[in-house]
Design goal:
The complex is a heterodimer. By secondary structure, chain A is mostly helical. Chain A is 76% helix and 0% strand. The longest helix of chain A has 27 residues. In chain B, α4 packs antiparallel against α5. Chain B is mainly α.
Chain lengths: 245, 119
């Protein structure tokens, strides 16, 4: 079997290629980010288990940072649920959009309910790029091969980072945390030209900070609905125009 | 027994409640996404709309994390974070979209500015 970006040749090869793609730049960047997260948790005065459990069952850095920040200021459980729920609401449309590209007829549904725990920006962006090109049976293996090792690196980095404060100057912790949004930004810029995406990305990037100034909690929901709907209407309009010509 | 007592102490369990709540609401969105996706046609207008919403949400979140962060980055000035972002973008495009170069330049610039003050 020939190994191309459109066909890795076998299911096994798809797992391995996923792991290879994850264990380079993504692992380096997310590893650094999670060292920053581990350091942040230890500065909050919590135990290493708290940091590890957060990375284990709540994997997606913005919600994890929000949880720790809110806990540190003694926010109520309700406030934490509301804030984290609103920050992580993006995971629902992300999951809906990714599913058709990783689904196959043989895999039982429960597997997707389990694997959805690993849907976060880095693995999502990689799978959105690679999986649509692959034969159906290699898609979920590629995604799994990518996210499980990446998540393992994050667990290890959380543990290491927890023991770093005192060793690392505060500025370096800041740099580690900053890596993450900058990396996400560049990942989306690298695939910027995919049809329909630029408008949604640009409008979202403008509305996100603006609405955050007005209403921090509802900011993301408003941004997604308003910027997403406007981008959708523009791209449908263009599409119809192109068809009628 | 001491170990177990330690684990069950209020100091340990109070954060666990916060983590549990956070994990539950986070999983709610992911699980709901899986459930809804089974009923949605990939070629429908609704699916295209959800795709636009997903990208807008991600861009909004990333822009907010850079410009108006919560957490340790909030201690820095906006001009420091914006400056580091611009340096990262410049290096990224100058190196023909090299992710590692762009990210490293941005983070290094941020650390230096945090140490030495704005450039």
């Amino acid at each position: 079997m020939h190994n191309t970006p459109d066909n890795f040749g076998s299911i096994r090869a798809a797992y391995i290629q996923g792991a290879k793609d994850a264990l380079t730049i993504p692992a380096l960047i997310l590893g650094s980010t999670y060292m920053g997260f581990g350091a942040l948790v230890s500065e909050t005065g919590l135990e290493v288990w708290h940091a590890l459990i957060s990375t284990a069952v709540n994997w997606a850095i913005p919600g994890q940072i929000a949880t720790m920040e809110l806990y540190a200021i003694n926010a109520s459980l309700f406030a934490i649920a509301a804030a984290v729920g609103l920050i992580n609401c993006r995971l629902m449309p992300m999951t809906i959009v990714l599913m058709p590209f990783i689904r196959n007829k043989k895999t039982p549904k429960i597997v997707y309910y389990f694997m959805s725990n690993f849907i976060a920006v880095t693995g999502w962006a990689a799978a959105m790029k690679q999986c649509p090109r692959l034969p159906e049976e290699q898609r979920l293996p590629y995604f799994t091969g990518f996210v499980v090792p990446l998540w393992s690196v994050c667990m290890l980095a959380t543990y290491i980072g927890y023991h770093l404060p005192g060793l690392l100057p505060a500025e370096v912790t800041m740099g580690l945390v900053f890596l993450n949004p900058v990396y996400f930004m560049l990942v989306f810029l690298a695939d910027f030209t995919q049809p329909g995406r630029p408008t949604a990305l640009i409008l979202g990037a403008i509305l996100g900070p603006l609405t955050f100034l007005l209403t921090p909690n509802w900011s993301l929901l408003i941004t997604g609905l308003v910027a997403g709907t406007v981008a959708f209407l523009i791209s449908e309009h263009k599409h119809k125009k192109a068809q009628s010509q | 027994m001491n170990e177990l007592d330690n684990l069950l102490s209020a100091d340990f369990m109070a954060p666990m409640a916060a983590l549990g709540v956070a994990a539950a609401v986070t999983y709610f969105w992911r699980g709901l996404g899986v459930a809804v996706s089974g009923k949605m046609d990939k070629d429908s207008a609704v699916f295209r709309w959800v795709t636009c919403v997903a990208y807008a949400l991600l861009a909004g979140l990333i822009a907010r994390m850079i410009l108006l962060p919560i957490g340790p980055l909030a201690e820095l000035g906006l001009e420091q974070r914006a400056g580091a972002t611009i340096i990262s973008l410049a290096v990224f495009f100058l190196t023909r979209k090299n992710l590692l170069a762009g990210v490293t330049a941005g983070a290094t610039a941020l650390v230096l500015m945090a140490k030495l003050g704005p450039l």
